[in-house]
Specification:
Length: 279
């Protein structure tokens, strides 16, 4: 069991190093101000990454069980997970990019305005990181934990190499580019490793509809110039959802499941109101 757990341990050590190596190298070669700007952008980016982490942790036990009992159902769930990861990550990327000025100024103030370009660069990697967590979950479910270690180590190595070239010249912007390059390399490596170890996951098929919906959303936000407020966030969710439905981003099974959930919630609300009125 200790030998089987080693890839997990090395994976988490690699992820820990990956999270802080940019800051360490940046502090060695550039000013404290640049370190602060980069850390401000990275903290938001790191917070966003808790979303796929939580989702995939919830998904992992069910995906592992399906791999034992039904490979077809396992593949179907893995591809649906990738689909929903794109559905969630793409609007975060686009809306975060458009509202990046407001987000940085709201959270850190005008003294961290220089962090905005780095934050935008990091946001570009959002879709890759979200997808990487799905690949990680697939590796665990098919009992190929070593692939986690291989993909993360490849990304860490590339990140360090790119940092060495970019940080002395471009500072914290170079560190942000290095993170983006590293996440992209992990994505490509994970896709190839999944293909060779298990099966080919359909990516374009699940990417294109959310991309079209978020492309229109982004164009709408630029044209209408809606402020970053709760109303603006709600507007983004509604417009994106409508276009996603228009482009048939959900199949009949998913829509039927959503209708059952709504009906169940409605019945629960009616029952609760009836109990309260009877009291």
């Amino acid at each position: 069991f200790q030998i089987q757990a080693m890839p997990f341990g090395l994976f988490f050590v690699t992820i820990l190093i990956y999270s802080y190596i940019d800051t360490i190298m940046l502090s060695a070669w550039r000013s404290d101000a640049e370190v602060g700007w980069y850390n401000a952008a990275y903290r938001i980016y790191e917070g966003i990454m808790t979303i796929p982490t939580i989702l995939c942790q919830a998904l992992s036990p069910h995906l592992s069980r399906l791999f034992v009992h039904s490979r077809e159902a396992h593949l179907d769930l893995a591809e649906r997970a990738m689909k929903y990861i794109f559905i969630i990550s793409l609007p975060i990327l686009v809306c975060g990019y458009i509202y990046s000025d407001d987000i940085i100024l709201l959270l850190f103030g005008s003294e961290f305005e220089n962090a905005i370009p780095a934050f935008r660069i990091l946001l570009v990697g959002t879709a890759f990181v979200f997808a990487n967590w799905v690949f990680n979950t697939i590796f665990i479910s098919i009992d190929r934990q070593k692939l986690l270690m291989y993909a993360s180590m490849i990304g860490l190595g590339i990140n360090i190499i790119v940092n060495i070239f970019l940080i002395p010249r471009f500072g914290f912007i170079g560190a942000a580019i290095s993170t983006l390059v590293g996440e992209t390399v992990i994505f490509v490596a994970s896709y190839i490793l999944t293909w060779r170890a298990y099966t080919r996951i359909s990516m374009i098929r699940y990417f294109i509809r959310p991309f079209l919906a978020v492309f229109i959303l982004g164009g709408t936000l630029v044209q209408v110039n809606i402020a970053f407020t709760p109303f603006g966030v709600g507007f983004c969710i509604v417009v994106y959802s409508l276009f996603l439905l228009a482009f048939e981003g959900f199949d009949e099974n998913e829509l039927a499941y959503a209708r059952r959930l709504l009906d169940r919630r409605k019945k629960q609300r009616i029952t609760r109101e009836s109990d309260e009125s009877s009291e």
